[in-house]
Amino acid sequence: MTDLPLALALFLLANLAVALWRVLRGPTQADRMLVAVLFGTTGVAILLLLAEAQGVPALVDAALVFALLAAIAGAAFSVRAWRQSTRPDGAKERAHDPD
Amino acid sequence: MILTELASTVLLLAGGAFFLAGTVGLMRFPDVYCRLHALAKVDNLGLGLVVLGLMLRADGLAQALKLGLVWLLALAASATVAYLVARRALRRGIAPWRGEGP
Amino acid sequence: MPDSEHRRSAILRPGFSSLLSVALFGGLWWVLAEGAWRAWGVGAVTVIAAVAASHLLWPPRVARVSPVGLAAFLFFFLWQSLRGGLVVAALALRPRLRLRPDLHELDLRLPPGPARVLLADALSLMPGTVSAGLAGDTLTVHLLDRGLVTEADLRQAEGKVAALFGLKLSAGEGGEGAGD
Questions:
Q1: Closest CA to C121 of B78, A96, B98, B9
Q2: Which chain B residues have a beta carbon less than 8 Å from that of C95?
Q3: What does the alpha-carbon distance between residue A63 and residue A45 come to, in Å, rounded to a whole number?
Q4: B96 touches C: beta carbon within 8 Å
Q5: Is the pLDDT score of A93 beyond 70?
Q6: Pairing between β-strand C129-135 and β-strand C102-107 as defined by DSSP bridges
Q7: DSSP character for C173?
Q8: Is the CB of residue B90 less than 8 Å from the CB of residue C132?
Q9: Nearest by Cα to B80 from A37, A85, C90, C180
Q10: Does C174 fall in a domain?
Q11: Looking at the complex, does the CB of residue C111 fall below 8 Å from at least one CB of chain B?
């Protein structure tokens, strides 16, 4: 079953694509922030599986850095970028997806 | 050896199943807070199972522990990011969806 | 906040704490280098730098962590996050999606600082809860479904975190029962 990690990596890649599409569609800005969480889990899993499938241990290091960056980027983005783009009071977003 | 390979296969497949469930939750849950639940919990369990499955295939303790370290970091990352996203969303006045009926 | 009362941090003797961090960062390096001993030249420099940085950024005055509490917390946490994944996955896959989400405000009895942060983070990975704000002594928690989590569940998690840091919580001890 040496092909399993590769197959699983491809499966997760498809998952990630679907999830990205969903998340980028919004409807709120907060939904788009979920990308950070997605890459921190699914992205990391794909890298780890590829490291095993291709025999490239360096990808494990890449996954490690990914996980670290996911934490730092998410924190920085939430605290900084989003605050700057906050609209004035009263402009509340709809949280519920219409469909 | 056969046994570890079997266990590894089962763990990897289970991990993949959880990732799928997480994506389904992401698609179906009604608002950003609920979608956070799907990502922060289900996907992390999926990652944990994948990591366990790969640990069984690692050569040597250090390599296995490194995979575990990646998981720990990913856990910390998604817990922190989930908290920050939820907090920001609340502060911006994105009201949580309350569901139908009591 | 009666801060000093809560923070019964045992001030670790500097010698011991340095030794501990050298051991910790050394172990971390060993893992990162995947046990490659020939990398120890670079490793030694890195470990010394890491120890120095950690002492600068987080002086060794860290609240005492109880080993028994740590073991209990890890066990509880792993079990709960396994349950969390299962429960939410089951909810996501249910043919008729019937969620009753809610916000819950939890009055914390934990002291400010690492204990609260750990609780907020841990709750996000447990069944049905995502932390959504920490203001004053109140932690706002988003519940995926009202029927999934009780106040007692949250109190139990709080109790585990308190035990980890060797803290005693004030009156009305939570933590018992209500877990099924």
A1: B78
A2: none
A3: 8
A4: yes
A5: no
A6: unpaired
A7: -
A8: yes
A9: A37
A10: no
A11: no
Q: What value does the mean pLDDT take over residues A13-31?
A: 82
Q: What is the pTM of this model?
A: 0.79
Are B73 and A67 an interchain contact pair (Cβ–Cβ within 8 Å)?
A: yes
Q: Measured between CA atoms, how close is B89 to chain A, in angstroms? A: 6
Contact list in C for residue B22 (CB cut-off 8 A) is 89, 92
Whole-angstrom CA distances from B53 to A60, B10, B48, B86 are 14, 8, 9, 31
pLDDT category of residue C61 using cuts at 50, 70 and 90: low
Tokens standing for A69?
A: 């960056």
Question: What value does the CA radius of gyration of chain A take, rounded to a whole number of Å?
Answer: 17
User: Angle at which helices C67-93 and C151-164 pack, to 10 degrees?
Assistant: 150
Q: For chain C, what is the domain count?
A: 2
Q: Answer yes or no: do C78 and C43 share one domain.
A: no
Tell me what ipTM this predicted complex has.
Answer: 0.85
In a domain, C141, yes or no: yes
What is the C-alpha separation between B40 and A41, in angstroms, rounded?
Answer: 9
Phi, psi of C133 (to 5 degrees): 160, 145
- If asked whether residues C51 and C102 sit together in one domain, one would say no
Q: Which residue among C21, C37, C57 closes a domain?
A: C57
Q: Which strands sit side by side in the sheet containing C102-107, from one edge to the other? A: C102-107, C138-143, C129-135
Beta bridge partners of C106: C139
Range of the domain at C50: 3-57
Partner residue opposite C121 with nearest CB, options B22, B30, B79: B79
Q: Could you read off the pLDDT of C65-89 as tens digits, one per residue? A: 777 888 888 888 888 888 888 888 8
Paired strand residues for C131: C141
Is residue A42's pLDDT more than 70? yes
Taking the CA atoms of residue A34, residue A36, residue A41 and residue A46 in that order, the dihedral angle to the nearest 10 degrees is 110
User: What's the pLDDT score for residue C15?
Assistant: 60
